[in-house]
Amino acid sequence: MKYLIVYASAGAGHRKAAEAIHEALLERVDKKDVAIIDSLDYTNAFFRWIYARKYITFVNDLPNIWGFFYYLLNIRLIYRLIRFPRRVVNVLNCRRFEDFVLKNRPDVVISTHFMANEIVAHLKRNNKINCRLYSAVTDYRMHFFWVTLGVDCYFVAAEQTRKDLIGCGISKDKIFVTGIPISPKFSVSLNKQDVKSKFGLDASLFTALIIGGGFGVGPVEELVKKIGALKIDLQLLVVCGYNEKLREKIKLLADSFNIKAKAYGFVDNIHELMSASDILVTKSGGLTSAEAMAKALPTVFVSPIPGQEERNSSFLQANNAAFIAEDVDSASEKIKWIIQARGELGKMGIAAAKMARPDSAKDIVNIICTQM
Questions:
Q1: Which CATH architecture best describes the domain 186-355?
Q2: Rounded to the nearest 5°, which phi and psi values hold at 142?
Q3: Who wins on pLDDT, 104 or 341?
Q4: pTM exceeds 0.85
Q5: Most C-beta atoms within 10 A of its C-beta, which of 53, 245, 248, 271?
């Protein structure tokens, strides 16, 4: 039995979801029977540039226009009108991906991005390949782009996501509520005080984790300044990803504002940092949100962009597991209020725990292996 896990590097979430499934699948099957690829590596250079680089630019620099098209294309009639030309564009630009699939002939394809759904389903409809096609949705609310004739099963984040998908015309028998796939390491319970000790943190201080990779330099820098100006007793953990410039700025700010703060670059132990924290401040990507819920970590979403971020954050706020802050001023004030109202923090943690699906990747793999 050959397994192919496919993502598209348009944002980090799709890759992380694929890696989580890959990690869980390797606990069940031999490594030689599993491949994981970025579908954009098998497209032409111009298409890859437009799809990945320009996507990020569009979302960061023109968020309102992005949101307009996100919601416009999620209208059933509009989606039906553009479905065929969209399919043609994807098929024409993904010939190398088609060739890869046909050459390797997997028995199971697991996709964490809708573009791969389109291409593999196209091959199935034309009787070029006979495989099971599974789609793991990486947001809490559905968009019509995920809906593809030929997908055998969908794995979704929550009951609301399931209802959304049924509303898009998908049979309820094809939908499994597993949670967004996250690494199995998030299912391991860690003692907060032990983890704080490991990172050299003050065990008695309120700890806020800021994941800043998606913000860019400005907003994170401004947020740390605003928190420093509050003159409240807390410590900050700031994850800057590959943004070394941001990391250096945070170190300087911590010194100038006399804030207890640790700035990190790229980390592979975010589950430990979350376990050491009392609150998360971040953008509202599906994967990071799911990881926070798995750690029962209340979250403040800062300036979610219109579209999937807006819908993710609204969903989690409606379920009392998160707050939405429209800007950094609002975010810093919410943090101050939460520190002063510890009972509210406890309620949010309980609500987050109810949303948690820490075994999501394992559950997805179990369902697939049971069906094969």
A1: 3-Layer(aba) Sandwich (3.40)
A2: -85, 155
A3: 104
A4: yes
A5: 271
